[in-house]
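Q: Okay, next protein. This is Apple domain-containing protein from Bracon brevicornis. I've checked the sequence twice, so it should be correct. Can you predict the 3D structure?
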Amino acid sequence: CLNEFSFVCRSATFDSMTRSCLLSRFTRRTHPELLEDDANSDYLENTCLN
């Protein structure tokens, strides 16, 4: 997230099955409908934003 410059990265989801990371400009607070419960994924929010 910290190295993303094309948009403001507010959260990321890491999928342990595919070993991929999906960056997002949204958070669970701004768009809770986008958050899905998945035991194979870890959700992280960027707390380094002003």
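A: Here is a summary of the prediction. Residues 11-45 form one domain. The chain has one domain: 11-45.
Q: Noted. On to the next one.
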